[in-house]
Design a protein that fits this description.
single chain; 140 residues; mainly alpha; elongated
């Protein structure tokens, strides 16, 4: 049996510590659960969401669009190969929700959007090497 004295630069990356894997999965399940549930409520015409989107002037198409984006982000976050894309999408949707709360709706019930945004940021930080365009430039 011969071994290659010059291993390829694309060798398998080192395994994550257990605590980091547990943190990542906790954040993924939390973000996907919250996004999926919120998207489900928007897509099934929850009266609270209808009132919220009427206040924003986005009823019904905005509610369906945001609900679809939230459900898509939740699904992408749970798949290992697309978790970064789902976290980017979830972070974008939550930034829009935070801006909507701060400008039109008032700061009531903004903590859920902030929590999901933080969870998406943790996912992006842990999986930063998989991030398109910036993954190879970041070396923190």
């Amino acid at each position: 049996m011969t071994t290659d004295p010059n291993p390829s630069p694309e060798a398998a990356p080192a395994a994550r510590p257990l605590w980091l894997s547990l943190l990542l999965w906790t954040c993924k399940l939390g973000a996907a659960g919250i996004l999926g549930y919120a998207g489900y409520l928007k897509l099934t015409s929850n009266p609270g969401d209808i009132e919220l989107f009427e206040t924003l002037g986005m009823e019904p198409f905005g509610r369906y669009l945001i609900g679809g984006l939230e459900c898509t982000a939740a699904g992408l976050i749970l798949i290992r190969q697309s978790a970064v894309y789902g976290a980017f999408l979830g972070l974008g949707v939550m930034c829009g929700a935070i801006i909507g709360h701060l400008t039109v709706l008032g700061p009531a019930h903004i903590e859920g959007a902030i929590l999901v945004a933080v969870l998406c940021l943790v996912i992006l930080y842990v999986r930063r090497r998989d991030a398109p365009f910036i993954g190879n430039m970041i070396d923190w």
